[in-house]
């Protein structure tokens, strides 16, 4: 079912001298969010209660997401033997909840839910490609390439189901665009910021959204190159029903790139050095 397995990764190639101190904390944070995939699958099972095909696909999807978390968690434990992946994830689970009892999408429709999923997979596929291109550590590079390929397949999976629901629900273009844009801005909500906190800060330190968001974002955005944004913009355009290649997509990618650079500088100004984890 899976396209690759953690025990097939050649962990002996791990090279401590090539671990980047600014990549390690974002890998730890990403492991939290990925591992939480099971809860999101429970939510999707409720939203698509009468669609057994999709429910099966969502369950398979979650198995891959959890594997992403475990692979990143294992790598981060090699890079930082003092780090406790399980304990960090237990803190994350305690403090960040997805409504696993919902019987309808928080996006207002199933098409909307699937568009939001496409945005998340666009983000993760770009993120892991950017990290793979940025790191010189061979095992992390390999894992991130495998994960990025999974995330691209996940995009396709949700996109195909979205087209099926779109034919039925007829969501307008503007509505689709609003949902896509809304999900992209949610990147700055608690999911990633709180993951950064649990994965990198001592349990005794109180969570502060702005501090943790700046710490995460300043490091994460710094590793993107323009080509990652260009490709991501093509995926966003495809998901909302616009031509993925062309002048509008190019212009949007260039604009997004400028905005991200500016945002990265703002986050970096606010970001504090990491305290030693307890
Ligand atoms: Fe993932
Ligand atoms: Fe994914």
Report on the structure:
- With 278 residues, the chain is an all-alpha fold.
- The protein is built from 11 helices and no strands.
- Helix 1 crosses helix 8.
- The protein is globular.
- The mean pLDDT is 95.
- The structure holds fe (ii) ion (FE2) (2 copies).
- One fe (ii) ion is lined by residues 34, 65, 68, 124, 147, 151.
Q: Mean pLDDT across all residues, rounded?
A: 95
Q: Number of helical runs?
A: 11
Share of residues in helices: over 70%
Helix/strand-derived category reads mainly alpha
What is the 3D shape? globular
Largest sheet features = none
Rg estimate, integer Å: 18 Å
Bound molecules: fe (ii) ion
- The first-to-last residue Cα distance is 38 Å
The oligomeric status of these chains comes to single chain
Unreliable spans: none
The helix/strand series, from N terminus to C terminus, equals HHHHHHHHHHH
Strand content: under 5%
Task: Count all strands and give the number.
Answer: 0
């Amino acid at each position: 079912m899976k396209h690759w397995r953690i025990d097939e990764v050649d962990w002996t190639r791990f090279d401590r001298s090539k671990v980047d101190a600014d990549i390690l904390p974002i890998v730890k944070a990403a492991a939290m969010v990925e591992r939480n995939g099971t809860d999101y699958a429970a939510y999707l099972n409720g939203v698509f209660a009468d669609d057994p095909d999709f429910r099966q696909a969502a369950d398979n999807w979650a198995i891959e997401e959890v594997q992403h978390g475990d692979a990143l968690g294992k790598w981060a434990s090699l890079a930082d033997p003092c780090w406790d992946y399980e304990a960090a994830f237990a803190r994350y689970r305690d403090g960040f909840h997805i409504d696993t009892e919902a019987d309808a999408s928080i996006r207002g429709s199933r098409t909307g839910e699937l568009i939001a999923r496409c945005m998340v997979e666009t983000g993760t596929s770009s993120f892991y490609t950017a990290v793979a291109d940025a790191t010189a550590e061979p095992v992390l590079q390999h894992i991130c390439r495998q994960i990025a390929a999974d995330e691209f397949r996940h995009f396709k999976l949700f996109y195909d189901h979205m087209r099926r629901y779109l034919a039925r629900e007829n969501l307008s273009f503007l509505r689709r665009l609003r949902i896509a844009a809304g999900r992209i801005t949610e990147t700055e909500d608690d999911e990633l910021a709180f993951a950064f906190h649990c994965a990198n800060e001592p349990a005794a330190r109180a969570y502060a959204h702005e501090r943790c968001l700046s710490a995460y974002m300043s490091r994460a955005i710094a590793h993107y190159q323009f080509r990652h944004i260009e490709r991501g913009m093509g995926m966003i355009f495809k998901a909302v029903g616009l031509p993925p290649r062309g002048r509008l997509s190019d212009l949007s990618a260039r604009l997004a790139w400028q905005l991200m650079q500016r945002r990265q500088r703002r986050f970096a100004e606010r970001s504090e050095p990491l305290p030693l984890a307890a």
